[in-house]
Amino acid sequence: MGSGRELGAHAPQFRRSKKIYLRFRIPYYTQWGQSLAISGSGAALGNWNVAQSQRMTPQHEGDSLVWEVMIAVPDNFETQYKYCLVDDKLNLIKWEAGSRRFLSIPQAIEAEATVDVHDSWQDGSSPDVLLNRNAFRKVIFGKGNDHEGKEIILETSPFATEFDVEESVAVRFRVTCSRLESGQSVCVTGSASSLGRWVNETAIPLHRVGGSLLQADVIIGRHELPLKYRYIIRNRAGDVISEMGGDRTLSSEPSAERISALIIVSDGYFRARPWKGSGVAVPVFSLRSTEDVGCGEFLDLKLFIDLAVTCGIRLVQLLPINDTSVNMMWWDSYPYSSLSVFALHPIYLRLQALSKKLPNDIKEEIEDLRRRLDLKEVDYEATLEAKLTVARKVFELERDEVLKSPSFQQYFDENQGWLRPYAAFCFLRNLFGTSDHSQWGRYSVFTSEKLGRLVSPTSDHYTAIAFSYYLQYHLHIQMTEVAEYARLNRVVLKGDLPIGVDRNSVDTWVAPTLFRMTASTGAPPDFFDKQGQNWGFPTYNWEEMAKDNYAWWRARLSQMAKYFSAYRIDHILGFFRIWELPDHAVIGLTGRFRPSIPISAEELEQEGIWDFNRLSEPYVRCHLLIEKFGDRWTEVANKYFDETQHLCYQFKEEYNTEKKIAAALKLREGSPQWLMNEAEETQKRLFQFLREVVLLRDTENPRMFYPRFGMDETASFRELDDRSKDVLRNKYEDYFYHRQEKLWRENAMKTLPVLMNSSDMLACGEDLGMVPACVAPVLEELGLLGLRIQRMPNSNKEFGIPSEYEYMTVCAASCHDCSTLREWWEEDEERRARYFKDVLGFSGTPPPNCDVQITHTILQQHVESPSVWAIFPIQDFLALKEEYTKRPATEERINDPSNSKHYWRFRLHVTIEKILHDQELIMIIREMNVKSGRATLTELPEVLAAEYADMSNGERTHKTKNIAYGNANGNIADSCRAPENLKSIVKGGEIRDHYTILECK
Predict the structure, then answer these.
(1) What pLDDT sits at residue 255?
(2) What pTM was computed for the model?
(3) Looking at residue 137, what DSSP letter applies?
């Protein structure tokens, strides 16, 4: 190595043919039989083919296990790369998390030189990986992260002088920091003279080189190695925030044989205190404002974002906003049954914003509709009809002007791939009076040629086609305005990705091969429904979807990313395995997991089980018929069953499925009540007999079986001999809890990474229900947030303990799929008493209603948790003030999962404008967020922050009655146990804190 070479942009610009030696080093602990490999772009790193990647070798260095590999590369080498965990045969076990790394060799590096690359493993569960998502980098910390894009080359080199590589080494410090405010910069300081010897004022600033990655090049004397250093954040005023933890260390080179000309130190992330935030969840239709017509609208969200900002809330979570107009009636209020996964729902349209030139008669019509539809709950049908009627009138007035505008043309060009089929579908739905495209004659089968004719501008019906374009264009404009408003206010807008689509949808019409149309999606019995759920969606043909690398999913996520910076994956368990039901099922009990490894006939025969017909066909015996139907048993037996042998029966062909029975027992409207009751009871009992099976036979392979969920509750199982019961119990346990884990993990790892890599939105998984053991490790590996609902813990405990939640979780006291906090409190007296004592730490009898003190205690318990997000339904926030609790709690529920025809119509009973002016409620929520560290005064609007800071603690205190929950005589209990940071102090008989959670002597 010669001396006197300058390392920087002013080096000679010519191509050299000799090699550079790259030495990659990374500390990581592996299990026996595992090793690390490095894979990336270019032949040297296997072109992302793990089987051709560079395997690394381990070196023990003190207490650390460091993996290392040296490769020779051209001197103009650049690559993107990642580390991966592999087995002995170079089969992939898992990738590290985070984005791809970028590396290029500086032009000033001499040929034959050695470059050391010191990396650290990117762990999916690391808070720092999470904070590099757009929700944080571009929204919450957006003011300090305005520069995005690929790594850039600095115009001037930090290496201003020549150096002798025998005496010095160039060090490139790299660290990622997404949490920068405007005016802040990251610097590196340390023990070397060129790092300022720990003097903050002379620390070396890092420069942004792409995204949140920062970099600085420094010359370090070799005699100063090993080097101690750390990163700091410094603002223009000179204020300094030092990263947490001990000093970082750069050791001397690992090999004296090849000294380094350059050491690239990739230090991962700036070590800061884990960030935490709070959020509020609300369906758009539930909002109420002084402007909306019949239900909440997209533009109402701007007011709601204002409310979030004033309360120190950083996230607004919505239910799905896609068009669900399948039946054109109130059934379509169900937001998870999409007509199109790309189109927005017209019911959220703000009519007043359609045009700046609305005629007075239309303005008056809108105002009249607004007054008439300002109802207690959403009238879905009337609201949608009103909006479509007015929108058509405006469309007729400005059709040519809008459709010829440059902004519409751009929108159409960017979205025509889904927009044209959607418009054609809506036209055919209205023409044929049904969304069941199997009833559309020659249009039942979709082709591009048919679509072209349908949407041709020269067709007689083009006005109807263009109206759908017009609606979606305006919905897009309004939702885009909301998304930009949220970003500018540094509020994360979180969407919802439904697990399914309606079987009569644009997507199943255009791409039927992507779906298993002869099956239905649902969920096994769980907290929400003891009979299981049948959602009616077709299941996915994952094998077909994989052929184009899940292009449908990637397009779907890209569309969502236009409006959202975070999203909730509905029923994420479905990406591991889905509960699949035959299309003739009505309820969700007799399903099976897909994919799953069935139980073979050979397995059972080896254990002495051979009577498969007895176990897999409905078990109907005379004594059971008498037990179910009493004196009516002979009538029922004769009508619905054939006697196969003495006292044994089987269903007749016309009644052998749930749908056939439901159709046969459907009565005309106006039938006598006694007859309707009898039909309902008969259907219920016959359904029970259809479910009298122990094993479900595979329809594609009759020698394969699946145990029926809850098989031991059937009479068929109870009447088996003890040995058969033991065998079947073991098979049941193995099927549901053991044999599928590897398969389900592999299935999820095929699909979830594709979803996450198709956008930079923050992903959160709804992992409730019957959760396999493989789910948590996969979510952790991928950096996916899990959901924690206190009343539905992922453990054997009755209640979750928020203080025990992991950081990579979203915690909540309730959600849209269950009762609100107030309703839950009132549902079960015995459970309420256990929660009051065991979780809240009170003695005595709990109040019958969830008053504001109880609500505050529970919500405070959640915001104090380690979870990165604490997200509450707006109903739970409103319960913090007595004024908003006058409405019966049962009227605040959004969804009842046990009712497949639930009407989704909940509306707030107060306008957003009124809540925005309620400084008392805002102060309660704001204080809760500030005290828990989920908001800071600097994050509040300047006026509010000043107002808050000027108040004394007593003035900031919400003035509520002090209620000491104690014994029946009202005495302060002597066994209260509450979290330390929530306890009040009782001293000298005086309660000094308003929260009324008492620490008693």
Answers:
(1) 56
(2) 0.87
(3) I
